[in-house]
Amino acid sequence: MRCRKTMFWQTAGGFTLVEVLVSVVVAALVFVAFLGLQTLGIRTRVHARLASKALNAAEDFLEQILVSVAQEPSNPAEALEDSGFLEPERAMGSEEDFSKRWEVRWGEPAPNLVTVRVLLCWTEPGKPPPTQAHCDFPHPTAPHVALEGVAYRP
Fold first, then answer.
1. Which is more confidently placed, 58 or 90?
2. From edge to edge, which strands make up the β-sheet containing 83-90?
3. Taking a C-beta distance cutoff of 8 angstroms, is the pair 140, 105 a contact?
4. pTM exceeds 0.85 for this model
5. Chain centroid, CA 74 distance in Å
6. Residue 147 near residue 117 (C-beta atoms within 8 A)
7. Which of 19, 21, 76, 154 has CB 3.0 to 4.6 Å from 15, enough for a Cys bridge?
């Protein structure tokens, strides 16, 4: 019987350097992907929280405008302007700045009806507050909530 000579690296059990490097690269890629998903989740949660607060503030503002439009003003100077823009201000009970834009259309869709559109924009963290150009009908570039309401005015 003939004796075979074997090398040490052929008989030793273990991983080669290439296998270890490949596993480290794969683990690093998985870790980076996981961090990216975590960051996206946090951004989405912050955006959803701001959108929810903006929706509540927009509903309150729309309701105020609809009530003022539906009532007959006793003084013509108190009449509401047909459109407007409010620079960023803090909504009640909120720490965020919201910019409000509104538009009142008299006699739409019927003679005794008034249509009111409200657009509320907000500031995303790390970005400048929206200006009138960023929070404009019909295509705002800032994050926004848009609402529309109709009131009867005899």
1. 58
2. 83-90, 97-106, 113-122, 144-152
3. no
4. no
5. 39
6. yes
7. 19
Q: Which residues contact 46 (CB under 8 A, 6 or more apart)?
A: 125
Tokens of 34: 């996981």
Tokens of 88: 């960023």
What's the pLDDT at 37?
A: 94
Q: pLDDT tens across 122-146, in order? A: 877 777 777 777 888 877 888 888 8
How many CB atoms within 10 Å of residue 11?
7
Amino acid residing at 110: A
Instruction: Tell me the residue type at 47.
Output: H
* Token code pair at residue 101: 């834009």
**129: Cα separation from own chain's centroid:** 13
